[in-house]
Amino acid sequence: MAYKIKSKHAQRVLVELGDNLKTARLKRRISVKDFADRVGVSARTITRLEKGDDGVSTGTLAMACLVLGEIHRIGSLLDPASDDTGLLLERNRLPKRIQVKSGKIPNRPASGDRNDSKVDRVDDQGVSF
After folding, report:
1. Which residues contact 116 (CB under 8 A, 6 or more apart)?
2. Which end of the chain is more exposed for a tag (fewer CB within 10 A), N or C?
3. Alpha-carbon span 9 to 109, nearest angstrom
4. Strand residue runs (E) in 2-115
C-alpha cells in the first residue's frame, strides 16, 4: 500500500508543482504523449504528476525536469548555502569564546626576524611567491 501524505500544506505544494510542470510543458508545446515518451513513463503517470499525485516517483520528477531543461532546479532544491534555517542554527552553535587547551600561545615571529627580509616576487602571470 502506498504512503499518502497527511499534511494538507505538503499536498498543496505538490499540486502547485504539478501545475508548474504542466505550464512548462505547454509553453514548450509538448503533448502529454510526447512528454511521457521522452520521460520514459506512461501518459497516465504524467497526468498524475501534473495533478500533484504523491505516488509518482522522484525519479519521474527528475526526468520530467530534465526533458524540460530544468534539471538544475532539482540539484539546488536544498542548497546548504541557501538554507537560512540551517545557516542560523549553525551560527548559533559556534562557540562564543575559544579556549587554548595547553594554556600556551603559539609562537609568532617577532618583527625584524628573518621572515620580514623576504621579498615577494611576482612572475609574468601576476602570481606571487
Report:
1. 109
2. N
3. 60
4. none
User: pLDDT tens-digit profile of 104-117?
Assistant: 666 666 555 555 44
3-state SS class at 126: coil
**Residue owning grid cell 545557516:** 87
Domain borders along the chain are 8-75
- CATH topology classification for 8-75: 434 Repressor (Amino-terminal Domain) (1.10.260)
Residue 79 CA to residue 106 CA, distance in Å, equals 37
pTM over 0.90: no
Q: Are 17 and 52 in contact (CB under 8 A)?
A: yes
